[in-house]
Each structure stands twice: as C-alpha cells, then as structure tokens.
Amino acid sequence: MTSTPVTIIGAGLGGLTLARVLHVHGIPVTVHEAEPAPDARAQGGMLDIHDYNGQIALAAAGLTEEFRAIVLEGRQAMRVLDRDGAVLLDRPDDGTGGRPEVQRGELRRILLGSLPEGTVRWGSKVTGTRTLADGRHEVAFADGGTVVTGLLVGADGAWSRVRPLLSDAVPAYAGASFVETYLFDADTRHPAAAKAVGGGAMMALAPGGGIQAHREDGGRLHTYVALSRPREWFDAVDFSDAAGAIARIAQEFDGWAPELTSLLTESDSAPVLRPLYGLPVGHRWDRVPGVTLIGDAAHLAPPNGEGANLAMLDGAELGLALAAHPGDTEAALTAYERDMFPRGAEAATDGAELHALMFGEDAPHGLLAAFAAGEEEAAGAHPGQ
Ligand SMILES: Cc1cc2nc3c(=O)[nH]c(=O)nc-3n(C[C@H](O)[C@H](O)[C@H](O)COP(=O)(O)OP(=O)(O)OC[C@H]3O[C@@H](n4cnc5c(N)ncnc54)[C@H](O)[C@@H]3O)c2cc1C
C-alpha cells in the first residue's frame, strides 16, 4: 500500500517535525516555506521543551540525542519578583525539571538538518488554496506557480492560507502585547539587570503588565515587556522611533525598580512590538478530505509556553497517524484530529488561566498561590519565555 505524498505549507517547528516523522517512515513529503532561506529571519528566543509534549515529538522524530546536545544547562531556574524588585519566589535549576531550554533557532537547525536536501522549497509563499472538483487541493504561490495535492497540511501559523479550506475562524487580538528587547553581555554591561534576572527566567508581575526576561546564551538577556492595552493604544506608538517608543512604554512602568525597567530602557536592540492573537478556544472543523492543520494554524493562543511544543506534537502525531494508516488518509486525519482538538482547547484554556494569574488584579500573588497549591503545570509555565 503506497502512501499519498504530503504537501506541507510552512517550515516552522510544527511543519518540520511532521516532515521529519514522515521521512523516517518513508512517506514522500515536500514543505513550501515563504521565507527565502533558512537564515532569512532571526528565530526568536529560548523555548522550554516539555517532557509531556515537545520531547515526545522529538523522540518520534528520532532526534532526542541531537536535542539533548543543544540544551542550555541551568536555564530552568525561575524567579518571580514584584514591581519593587523584591524576590517573591526563587527556584534554582537543580537539573530535575522536565522543561530543558534550547534556542529556537538551534532546534529548527536540527530539524532542517535531519531532512533530505530539497525537502523544503524556500521562497514558496502561498497566496491562496482551493478545492478542485476531484477533491484534491490546489495551492497558488506568489510567483504565479501552482501545485495540486491529494494531501495538504497547513503548518503556516497564525495567518494560515490553508485554514480557509476548513474554517472561517480568524485570530482575534488578545487584549495585550509584548514589547521585545535585548541586553547583550549583561553581566558586564548591565550587572543590576543581570542579577535581577538570575540564571534562568524572571517574571516581575503586576496587574495589567509585567516584565519577563530570560538569560540566553552568552550573558544575553531577552525581555518581553507585557502590557494589557488595546491594539489602538500600541498603534499610536511609533516603533520606527526606537528611543521614543521605549520612552512611551517605560512610562507605563513608572515607579518600578530601575534594575527591572532597565531591561527596556537600556535595550541594545530596537524594541519590537509583538501583538498577541488567538483563535477561538476550542476551534475545530468538520472533516474535509485531504486537508488538515497543525500548530498555530489550528489552535493559535496567546503565548502560554506551550505553542511550539504543541505544534511539534501535532506534527509528530499526524506523521505517526499517516504511517499507521497507509493508503487510508482519511482514517489517519480523523484519528489525528480526534486527539488534537481537545489538546489544543485544553492548552488554550490553561493558558488563559495562567495569563489571568500573571497579569490579573491579584498579580503576582495569584501565581504564587498557584505555586503554593502545587499547581506545577500552571506555575511552571512562563508565557513567552
Ligand atoms: C512572543 C512569543 C513568544 C512565544 N514563546 C513561546 C514559548 O516560550 N514556548 C512555546 O512553546 N511557544 C511560544 N510561543 C508560541 C510559538 O512561537 C508558536 O506556537 C509556534 O511557533 C507555532 O509553530 P508553528 O510551526 O505552528 O507555526 P510558526 O512557527 O508560525 O511557523 C509557520 C511557518 O509558516 C511560514 N508561512 C506563513 N505563511 C506562509 C505562507 N503564506 N506561505 C508559505 N509559508 C508560510 C512561516 O514563515 C513560518 O516559517 C511564543 C509566541 C510568541 C508570539
């Protein structure tokens, strides 16, 4: 029984994990990626890869050893501060946590390196998709080309061009945005900030906002300043004027400890606005032959520390389902979606609860109470870090 060749749109962590699992099982696969080259864009910061989803996916991809080799030791340390810089919780990394940290770019490099040359078609930007009379799907590209496929997977993230084949849902603004900054060589150049952040992740939280930072490779501090404001509020800030934008965001943190606000005000990089969006919680669709979605395309949620992990697990599970049902694509897609829908909904619900603990009226004490109650899953996650 031969398997239908698979056409994946998007070479993010979800699409690449799917491609790798298919390759391991001898199923032909092509990935179309809009970006022109693997290094076209910086790949963002650190990801904690969980033993209950991301690590399972990497094992299915046969890449556990490669993953272990890129783990940054000690980065699972985590602390919670208040706006005055007082340390309310300080958890060292004792090496027993189930969430080792890696650089996203390194993880993507491993996945790309595990695929045969030519699997990913770079500079292949999808502009539209449609279902043909024979039930197959046509994918149109920005360069005017088209591809017709019997099995199409949308792994193309928040603004998926494949999703309209299955659902009318569109992401909605989540009521908050992150502003991303970096301090380089912080132990030497910004010692107070480096001390406040500590060895791993730091969250300084208050109602309506917070400053979250993570120690990356080589003394680099990566910060997401979180602020609950309408989209229009951020639209009125001119991010093309880096100093002006920083000053405007910093105003909202007036009175906070300087070692915390310096993560923003002393930034060595121009601030980048990251508005947060989510699909409706529990987003699902009726089965349409020959097409499905994985990762953010299926269940985008505001950052809750799970998105990349879930995208990889979706990719691995879909790949395994296709391998387990050779010649019966619909059985594979049905089995995959049966597990994926509730998994995505549960993560989004947990993420919304976590967000409320971190930035709600009771912040940061709600989060600390969750820790005290032993809610490891909720409290151990740290959105956007
Ligand atoms: C600020 C921030 C912080 C986050 N922090 C974390 C974290 O700490 N831990 C965690 O687990 N998750 C985190 N997430 C969530 C995580 O980034 C996503 O859930 C994850 O990247 C989803 O993976 P994906 O493969 O589904 O989609 P993506 O990573 O978005 O990949 C989609 C790919 O498709 C390509 N593409 C898009 N459109 C087209 C097109 N038209 N044609 C062809 N290709 C296309 C894109 O270029 C991209 O390569 C964070 C998200 C944000 C915004």
Automatic annotation (TrEMBL):
Its cofactor is FAD. NADPH binds at R41. It is an enzyme of class 1 (oxidoreductase). It catalyses: a tetracycline + NADPH + O2 + H(+) = an 11a-hydroxytetracycline + NADP(+) + H2O. The keyword GTP-binding does not apply. Residues 4-176, 290-346 form the FAD-binding domain. InterPro entries: FAD-bd, FAD/NAD-bd_sf, TetX_monooxygenase. FAD binds at D48, R104, D296. Its main location: cytoplasm. It is found in: Cytoplasm. Consists of an N-terminal FAD-binding domain with a Rossman fold and a C-terminal substrate-binding domain. PANTHER family: FAD DEPENDENT OXIDOREDUCTASE DOMAIN-CONTAINING PROTEIN, MONOOXYGENASE ASQM-RELATED. An FAD-requiring monooxygenase active on some tetracycline antibiotic derivatives, which leads to their inactivation. Hydroxylates carbon 11a of tetracycline and some analogs. Monomer. This is Flavin-dependent monooxygenase.
